[in-house]
Amino acid sequence: MKITDFHLYLLKRLSYLVLTMFLVSAIVFASTIILPGNAAVLILGRSADENSVAALEKKLGLDQPWYEQYFDWVGGLFTGDAGTSLVRQEPVIDIVVPRLFTSLQLAVFTLLVVMVIGISAGVLSALKRDTIVDRIISGVAYVGVSLPEFVTGTLLILLLAGPVFNVFPASGFVPLSEGIVPYLSHMILPVATLTLLITAYVLRQTRTEIIEVLQSDYVRTARLKGVSRRRVLYKHVLRNGLLPTITVLALNFGWMMGSLVVVEEIFAISGLGRLVVFAIQNRDLPLLQFVVLVIAGAYAFANLGADLLYGYLDPRISYGGEE
Amino acid sequence: MQLEQTQTTSNETVLSIDSLHVEYSTPGSNVRAVRDVSLDVARGETHGIAGESGSGKSTLALAILQYLGDNGSITSGTVQFNGTDLQELSESELRSLRGNDIAHVAQDAKSSLNPSLSVGEQVAETIQAHQDVSRSEAHQQAIEMLREVDIPDPEYNADQYPHELSGGQQQRVLIAMALSCSPELLILDEPTTGLDVTTQSKIVELIQDLKDEYETTIVLITHNLEIIAQITDRVSIMYAGELMEQGDVYSIFDDPSNPYTQGLLAATPEIGSDKAPTAIPGQIPDLTDLDDGCTFADRCAFATEECRTGSIAMETVADDHETRCRRWEAAVEDPIQPKRGTYDRASAGGELLSATGLRKIFDEPSTVGTLFEDTSFERFFDLEPPVKAVNDVDITVRESETVGLVGESGSGKSTLGRTLLSLLEPTEGTVTFRGDDVGEFDSSEMREFYSECQIVFQNPHSSLNPRKTIGQIIERPLRMFTDADAEARTNRVVELLEQVDLGPEYVRRYPHELSGGEKQRVAIARAFAPNPSFIVLDEPVSALDVSVQANILDLLSDLRAEYGTTYLLISHDLSVISAICDRIMIMYLGEIVESGRRDDIFEPPYHPYTRALLSSIPNLDPHKESSPILLEGDVPSMRNTPNGCSFHTRCPQKIGSVCEESCPEVEPTGEGESSEHGIACHLDEDEMSTAIEGLHNDADG
């Protein structure tokens, strides 16, 4: 296969990604070491005698110098061993993976809904600029973004899962394997809560950009050469106007992965967000380290994905070749 | 050429505009952008619409196409195309008319093309919109159209995106798009503005060739009177939304019968004449708040009280020649003449600033990079070939002289100017100021140097801080470079404003309240604030209208006479350079290819590039046909400059392999070594002096 500038670019980006992950792992590790409290004491309780603490420290490798601990940990990560949860006494990986999967479904589902609603409302807003339609759309979006998720989430539960209309379950998460209807019905309220929060950003970005493109010289050129309205909209306006939205979506995706805490707490979904809270509350350092690393990784991958997609769609982006 | 065009003109009217008024509504006021414009364009005619910015010429073009945006509308008057009133058409009827019967080529090709569609697809799109053809047939036709407009390798370039083509090629794509459905009427809005002069002459040739081939009627809108003179049959001169004068091209240029037309012609610099471009005083009126009477009265030498009353109608001067002026007979009697004779010059003194072996290279490979020859490694780290923006330049500027530095875009002229001022650090070579090496200056000497050497930038709209008052802007260099106290500084600011003909009331104004010409005056006042001995003027007039441009050149010349200031005037426009420079240097791809006194440059022997540049400037006299030397291709990239003589890839007089292999040094011409005229070329002097034959053949279609 011929090596193109794109491959080199991809290689470069991936190596930056690896570098980023290394840095993140180092920072995560350092901060957990700096945190007060000895893991062995935490596990055994304050009344434990020195000998058993020392024995446990030896078992956990805590008697080793910090750099050996770090390399043991990183080395373990490469072999698929992220350590053992201090509290649960299970491999960290086994705890994290199913929850990651749950959170991912939540995030991806929300992203899709935000994409559809945010983009179409944004485009509509731009096309109907300064009309009543535009104002209503902006108004709704602002209300959504200015209410915190514990307010909207709680209101949604009260409205749709409680005394008023009991349509959806108030909490929990059901895997798809148990049927599409229960799966979706559990998913709708948390997704709606997140959507209300995020849509405004996407909508705003889309509206601004589409308005700018509508006023561009090349859209005028297209209209003055007699191209149909539909084609002007799809080939000229949307094609260029939606590019920056990709970046906003990717940023929101990364942000969501780290910010599911509140929503998962409200709807009692056991995903990554709740796991973080659990790990912090219980000083479960190996668990905390790995979860944070996974969230950082999701963020980095989302951005890489956005940049690649952007580059694919915008021919002006070159990969360090001739241009 | 003129004769030919007149013959193809018939009596049948294609476009007929009758007392058209266009308004844009903005919050709080209405801009009356076009008022009472009537014009007829006959089949086969090339009709030129000339005017400066704000004259309403682009609005007129869009009004013809019934495309005025959300806030613009035709308030009265009609536009008829082949007898059909275009205002009566429905949106879908207009859609089938646009691009098919009337095509529009917009100003600024780069922004008028969709950046994310291939150019072939953009041409094909027009064809598909109006003809019942398949996608692949449309693509095939698009390739043929690109071939028609001389896009090299059209099969390949059809798949390229706009940013991958040069400015001239982008313009060609727009023209291909417009002609793809063989429209009856082609509207070209500033088709050559922003292009280099050698590219401009190729586009003009192309327009003329295609006009003959497609038998298209053309409306050509431009501020460039030379192009109007060269390629149009009839001309409309617009000012502040009104038609000032209209007639056939010869009567307009031979007997201009409107003070504005006369003023425009006097303000346009001409090479090889002793004409000193003469400014039109004042500025264009506010189109939201127009007084009665003639819109030009405030700037007109012939205006009387009577001119400021009522509405001014078009008056007939002769057959097919009308003017909107009550005093036109007086204007014809004693027309506005440009000043003659060159500007006052102080005699040049000793050496002020000089550079030897100066190089400025951007993106130089790092030491690590040079260890690896492998290109994929270089690409991995974004190591592209370095940009040789200034390549081994020797230059000497003497006290009180004005040196012109001419080059097309990408010639490295601005970089050279900035490197001389130590705004950029030279990669190699030395700059000396009054005999001292600038590179050796300590910080206090450097401060002194910066106060002695100032710069005026091209774009006055972006070179003044929008959040500072004019007073603060001019005061800043006084704070930095002088010990004057607050009161002394304030007095000096007023004094400086006075010198650039602005009153003390400007002290408290902000840049956005000023016109382009006024802003450039402020930039000049700022440059003069610390009493500099040397000023680099980087395209000081190219963002300005021609009537204002002459004003700034006058001002620069007055200040030079008063203070004996030395100028390095950087410009792409040889006419501007020729108007005020003592010596001229011609730059191509980072190298000086010719230098000499003003007259040396405009007379043989010529460097082949200078010859091409000079021939590319169209003649302001419609009786004198221009015959530009058309250079092949575009200027090569500075990342990949040709070996040997950098001009050999485009040189019409290339001798052979010597041009490809060895880089010519600047050699003095004439008898003595003392000659100030130097040319870097392998040709001998005879070859550089005699006319070259057969070069214009390719210009004829």
Automatic annotation (TrEMBL), chain A:
It comes from Halobellus salinus. Coiled coil: none annotated. It is found in: Cell membrane. GO terms for biological process: transmembrane transport. Its main location: membrane. The keyword Membrane applies. The chain crosses the membrane at residues 14-35, 106-127, 139-160, 180-203, 237-255, 261-280, 287-306. Keywords: Cell membrane, Membrane, Transmembrane, Transmembrane helix, Transport. CDD domains: TM_PBP2. Residues 100-310 form the ABC transmembrane type-1 domain. This is ABC transporter. It is a multi-pass membrane protein. Belongs to the binding-protein-dependent transport system permease family. Pfam families: BPD_transp_1, BPD_transp_1_N. It comes from the Archaea. The lineage of its organism: Archaea, Methanobacteriati, Methanobacteriota, Stenosarchaea group, Halobacteria.
From TrEMBL, chain B:
CDD domains: ABC_NikE_OppD_transporters (cd03257). GO terms for molecular function: ABC-type nickel transporter activity; ATP binding; ATP hydrolysis activity. Its main location: membrane. InterPro entries: AAA+_ATPase, ABC_Ni/Peptide_Import, ABC_transporter-like_ATP-bd, ABC_transporter-like_CS, Oligopep_ABC_C, P-loop_NTPase. The keyword Iron does not apply. One of its GO terms (cellular component) is plasma membrane. It catalyses: Ni(2+)(out) + ATP + H2O = Ni(2+)(in) + ADP + phosphate + H(+). Its EC number is 7.2.2.11. Coiled coil: none annotated. Keywords: ATP-binding, Cell membrane, Ion transport, Membrane, Nucleotide-binding, Translocase, Transport. It is found in: Cell membrane. NCBIfam families: oligo_HPY, PRK10419.1, PRK11308.1. The complex is composed of two ATP-binding proteins (NikD and NikE), two transmembrane proteins (NikB and NikC) and a solute-binding protein (NikA). This is Nickel import system ATP-binding protein NikD. It comes from Halobellus salinus.
